[in-house]
Amino acid sequence: MPKSVMNKRLRLKRIGIDTYKENVAFMNSNCCVYRAAGFQAMSKVKVTADSRTILAVLNVVLNNSIVSPGELGVSEQAFQQLGLPEGTRVLVDHPEPPASIDAVRRKISGDVLELEDFYGITRDIVENRYSKMEMAAFLVACVETGLERSEVLSYTRAMAATGQRLDWNEPLVADKHCIGGIPGNRTSMIVVPIVAAYGIPIPKTSSRAITSPAGTADTMEVLAEVNLSPERLRQIVKEEKGCLAWGGTSKLAPVDDILITVERPLGIDAPGQMVASILSKKFAAGSTHLLLDIPLGPTAKVRKRDYAHQLRKIFEYVGDRMGIHLEAMITDGTQPIGRGIGPVLEARDVMDVLRNEKEAPQDLKNKALDLAGRIIEFDPDVRGGQGRDIARQILDSGRALAKMEAIIDAQGRKKEMPALGSMVHEVRSHKDGVVAAIDNYALNRIARLAGAPLDKGAGIYLYKKVGDRVEEGEALYRLYSQFEADFNFAKDFIKKHSAGYLIESSPG
Amino acid sequence: MPKSVMNKRLRLKRIGIDTYKENVAFMNSNCCVYRAAGFQAMSKVKVTADSRTILAVLNVVLNNSIVSPGELGVSEQAFQQLGLPEGTRVLVDHPEPPASIDAVRRKISGDVLELEDFYGITRDIVENRYSKMEMAAFLVACVETGLERSEVLSYTRAMAATGQRLDWNEPLVADKHCIGGIPGNRTSMIVVPIVAAYGIPIPKTSSRAITSPAGTADTMEVLAEVNLSPERLRQIVKEEKGCLAWGGTSKLAPVDDILITVERPLGIDAPGQMVASILSKKFAAGSTHLLLDIPLGPTAKVRKRDYAHQLRKIFEYVGDRMGIHLEAMITDGTQPIGRGIGPVLEARDVMDVLRNEKEAPQDLKNKALDLAGRIIEFDPDVRGGQGRDIARQILDSGRALAKMEAIIDAQGRKKEMPALGSMVHEVRSHKDGVVAAIDNYALNRIARLAGAPLDKGAGIYLYKKVGDRVEEGEALYRLYSQFEADFNFAKDFIKKHSAGYLIESSPG
């Protein structure tokens, strides 16, 4: 008489808790299953009914407030995944560890993994079999020993295979991507309308900010809806040739969206991971041609030219084998691009450039033209070196602005741009001199503390850039915040750590 | 008027959920704080009231079943840590990342860490500032690049410093430790009574099984209480010279007990981690002399003699600098020791040896005498080479048995030994021949699947050891289980993977 198995059947109860990407189950500490099976709180359990199975992290409840001893509570997402009515008898058991954990252990011991290993790992992650702890182990293992080129390629293929692939039925589908790290670097919002106006399809999907005060999706969202269904996105690209959407809902290489929830808090940003993450998304997005922007500078992500070259070569190696024509530009990453840092402030810079305003930041404009020119030269009919002139004509003539307005309308124009943060503070130079350097890292940090990107109107507006003369007491930049706590965090950081500016006394 | 800060004050509510070593907070999705502050479900939040602060993982609740919008629910442990009455107004905020995460990031990029870094990391972990994900990142980073000797020493010092240190007021306090991996290897339960009967204090604290089917604490628990307060432990050692207790409640190097909750599911078992974990505990336990057992064999933890030597040298290096006289024995790890695998079966083997029963496993007896002899030679008055004879006399004379009975009584004798699992299955040889090899790893796995160590009576009893002749159909070992599901897991593993025995046909 298999009594123990009988006892393991509990009544399913729905607990309206959203536990993000991890399922949670609740069991009463007086439940016979908890006592007999030796489950540990915060360990994973397998919940089965009929042919359906989910994994969940076990929370153990010391009284009857949430579940009684005969019940198993499951969080909202877990309840949806099971798809069974409340009261269904479910079996709770120890899960088999995900099969691919063996490959993670081999990676930890320094092995080189094969394509099949990466398929197994990415599949298990997408199917929610990994805890964050297990994902962290995998990610750190990949950072540490580093990944061989062959592994980065396998990993990219495996990541791309976790989702669908878009097919645009076009011979040339362009994309651009910046590896990030430079505040204010919102070139995509200028490049996309120029390239689309030229006639090359450029369905740009972007991430939200991970460690920076604004991603392209955060900034575009100030002007238009960015949360578009795949059908809507396809329609817009068909009509306008370009879009500026958030990539999160597109189900392209979805494993990346899960891993990012672990990479972000751990600050993991390793070359192999970066290449696989970027190229799997681009492959899944159906891109045929990709222009990569690799900013180089002492406070950029890439700080040494050698490393920039090494990174470019891994990108090229994997890109070639995935059938993506890839070019990489190593750009100036010594200071922020433009004047605004934070969604609203960056959106203003972008629109000033597109409108050919006199006060538009020239560095942002020039960089966007360089990039757009290179993409236009993906067109076999364009002579090498002519792309930038074509891009410039499109911008100067107002065609880029018109295209941007059309894209905004197509995606869904926001009624009004959010206001800038109402709390302002000017950070001033403590001496006469010249701005010798601006610390990208510090400014990113300050703008985030001030509330960006969650508060769209929070951020920093730069009055001075490298090479500018300043006088003692003159403002270097202005800080904007929506909430007092954030405002104080940002000001504290400036006081205790750094304002991010190096002023050198001018001789004489 | 700092309205946002006002809004962040929620009413504290106690939620009777035991969430093991991680605090959990519950917030309603309609709570203005959740909406305004941009918290993410399953991310960490800082909860402050008066001068008290805790960190907790945020669960977001989609309805009012657990908390209403103005409340913040906290799990049982978090509530205790805050120590404030329900209804107290608490401030919820984004936490600063633990300061020592920077050191973890440096380790991930391959840096060598300093003593201060390890102090910071271990302190933050003990003070509950790390998530499991962050701990996994730290542990894997240490495995991967490996730790320099100097780092292992720093790490050991830092781990030891997270708890108290016992002082026995004795010139010689002995201990033994086996690095594990060999099923049935329960020598401590024979060595401790012999050494204690000789008169050397040997306050042995052991872990429960991590990846094996039984630890010394699990096995001793079959006979006696092992969960002893530090005061009780001290009293027993004073009276009996020895004890066999669980180390988990002793607050010695407590960071290790936290890290183990991450090492266990990830199967992390790296040399630096092992040395720091073992020696920090031994240092904190006040040991002056330590005998290390390093089993070597093709399916042991240590599979190559070179690696065994390397490991021994790291142990010696750190031991010397921590002021512990350390000797390491590289022992035969080619097959299980004794006949029983699993708490009850191993306890029977041990008691058979102590009782000088004819059927007692001789390999277990001989190994225990070797180890006990070496420890007795820590006594400066014992001539080199005489220790084993002394140990043998103590065992043969029944003094070891008497001491064991006294220790059992002192710790609290169990009324009766748990029964063996009621489901049994004999695994038989598929041909005539000789047992050429036994796979420690497979037998550990099978015994764990069968239910050990949680079901004390589950496990394996070996009829045949390496070198024994077997006939086709003759039983190699017997499997015991308490629960049908476990019984089937174990049988499935044997069928699909391996029974753990290599039988070679005898010539002719």
Please tell me about this protein's structure:
2 copies of one chain form a homodimer. Chain A has 508 residues and is an alpha/beta fold. Chain A has helices spanning 3-7, 32-37, 76-82, 101-108, 115-126, 132-144, 149-160, 188-198, 216-220, 230-240, 254-266, 271-284, 305-322, 343-354, 362-376, 387-396, 399-411, 440-449, 484-496; strands at residues 9-14, 17-18, 24-28, 44-49, 52-61, 71-74, 89-93, 174-178, 202-206, 242-246, 289-296, 325-332, 340-341, 423-428, 433-438, 459-462, 469-470, 475-481, 501-504. In chain A, the strands form 5 sheets. The first copy, chain A, has a 6-stranded mixed barrel. A 4-stranded antiparallel β-sheet of chain A has the order 13-16-18-14. A 3-stranded parallel β-sheet of chain A has the order 8-11-12, with helices on both faces. Chain A is globular. Chain A starts with a helix and ends with a strand. Mean pLDDT of chain A is 91; it is low at 1-7. The interface between A and B is large, with 64 and 64 residues.
